[in-house]
């Protein structure tokens, strides 16, 4: 049986949030103002948890620092960010979930609202070659600080997934089973679309929905 298995990233395969950790890393390096960045970062994170995040406003904040650096500088910074902030957040349980599906021959994809610059090396570390993420704009070999295309956020994850499948000349109906692992109420549109929704370290609303619907609830940390 062909199975499509989708994983959210933050608080699902990571015991934390890569979108939150990136500006924290830049603050530690003295590259962002701590007080202002922490204030806005915390406010956006509370909005995300409440399901009220304005994605366009958030992306303007989150992507702006990328425009300040060359690609070479960013890759060097990201390598340190991985070591200092991300590797400690990858649990054995999360790795085992991914490997377990891969061992069964499933098509495994990470689908995340976090931008590709931050998440591509994390997906590679997890051994997942397929990533659907929010795309930062690149012009003349540099990030502009703006997004491009449809953010893979809330119902946008369904749109982005269907576009990705179409590029592969595939459809939902090609898969006997579709799975999605996520922690967040923001992912309810896609969780309700798949045949096997799984709540992972769920927030309060997702936990309530999962219990009502009889969805499995698992914890990776």
Automatic annotation (TrEMBL):
Q: What is the lineage of its organism?
A: Bacteria, Pseudomonadati, Pseudomonadota, Betaproteobacteria, Chitinivorax
* Pfam family for this entry, one: HAD
- Which NCBIfam families does the annotation name? HAD-SF-IB (TIGR01488), HAD-SF-IB-hyp1 (TIGR01490)
**Protein's name in the database:** HAD superfamily hydrolase (TIGR01490 family)
- Give any GO molecular function from the UniProt entry: hydrolase activity
Q: Matching InterPro entries, A to Z? A: HAD-like_SerB (IPR050582), HAD-like_sf (IPR036412), HAD_hydro_SerB1 (IPR006385), HAD_sf (IPR023214)
- What are the record keywords, sorted? Hydrolase, Magnesium, Metal-binding
Q: Which residues form a coiled coil?
A: none
